[in-house]
Amino acid sequence: MVLKWLTGNPGSRSKRMMWSVVLLLMCMAPLFTTPFRLGLLTKFLALAILAVGLDLIWGYGGILSLGHGVFFGLGAYAMAMYLKLDASGASLPDFMGWSGVTALPWFWEPFRSFPAALLLGMLLPALLALILGFFTFRNRIVGVYFTILTQALVMIVVTLFVGKQEWTGGTNGLTGYNSILGFNLNAPSTKIGLYFITLAALAGAYILCRRIVNSRVGQVLEASRDGENRVRFLGFDPSRYKTFAFAVSGGLAGLAGMLFVLQVGIISPSMMGIVPSIEMVLWVALGGRGTLIGAIIGAVLLNAAKTGISEAYPEGWLLVLGALFVIVVVLMPKGLTGLWSKVASSLSRRGGTVHAAVREES
């Protein structure tokens, strides 16, 4: 099957070979990186899962969401609640005792089970996205109004999580756990295992979104982006397709949050606020929206640059990163993948011209 995938289409054979080499190098990453750097790479790959889902709804559906931090945070909190209960054992989590809570709230009970926490970490954000999408797309609330609505959702959820300190840990969030299923999260062997799990999850998210984009759902989604009224005239209901894509995108954001919290060891309302939600959109814009692979590249490169520049320039890294982003957006409106396509096209035309000249001389 792998051989067929590599040799099936001559036109894209070189591209597939290139991505096979990239995947092979990614699998070999634990051999030539330190556990600390491997943990950072795992975190970047987890964030790339969110970027792929966001690109599905923004790049192909034309729906700009500035509220994906909420979906990401719900997934992260689901996993953190399981880890916190596992670390607390038979007693209540420490922050509940400090807040005067005497019994575990009923909605914490399902998170005693790892499978339940894993399932709810994806289902809860997908369900929230499904409900929000159903009522907004059905009432044809799109464009800037939908974007503002998602920002309002972020403000509501963050205020709720900060205000209910006895249930969520407040501004401090959930932390103080260091093992999962008996494995130490800080052990090098655990970090290698989490890296491959995250890499497999990213590959699965990409394949899922690629299949959606190439299916009838993806075609209607793209057509709705370019002319929704025409799609309605043809007998399709764009709101159903948008709601489905938005729910898938929310579920992937939840998956990213769960994998993220395993690496970082903390989740707080500040990680799901307005600024992180805007940053998520920037990853897709930088990589090139409407390409899926561009979303992965943008998320990994921008977060890697953020880490590298902050290490080199602790006091001015935000200015450097902001200037870099403005330069890329102004000079490359289609992102890094758009620049790569332009360079490849230019080289191809030049190669064809040289080849024709050689043929004339001969």
Over all CA atoms, what is the radius of gyration?
A: 22 Å
How would you characterize the largest beta sheet? 2 strands, antiparallel
Strand arrangement, major sheet:
1-2
Number of strands: 2
Question: Helix- and strand-based class?
Answer: mainly alpha
Individual helix count: 16
Order of secondary-structure elements: HHHHHHHHHEEHHHHHHH
Low-confidence stretches: none
Averaged pLDDT: 86
Break the fold down into its secondary structure elements and pairings.
Blueprint (H helix, E strand, L loop, with lengths): L1 H6 L5 H15 L1 H4 L2 H26 L7 H21 L5 H5 L15 H25 L5 H20 L1 H4 L10 E2 L2 E2 L3 H27 L1 H18 L4 H27 L9 H14 L5 H20 L4 H15 L3 H27 L1
Antiparallel strand pairs: 1-2
Helix pairs in contact: 4-10, 4-12, 4-13, 4-14, 5-7, 5-12, 7-12, 10-11, 10-12, 11-12, 13-14, 13-16, 14-15
Characterization of the model:
The chain has helices at 2-7, 13-27, 29-32, 35-60, 68-88, 94-98, 114-138, 144-163, 165-168, 188-214, 216-233, 238-264, 274-287, 293-312, 317-331, 335-361; strands spanning 179-180, 183-184. The model has no long low-confidence stretch (mean pLDDT 86). Helix content is 76%, strand content 1%. It has 362 residues and is an all-alpha fold. A two-stranded antiparallel ribbon has the order 1-2. The longest helix has 27 residues, at 188-214.
Q: Would you kindly provide a brief summary of this structure?
A:
The chain is 76% helix and 1% strand. It is mostly helical and 362 residues long.
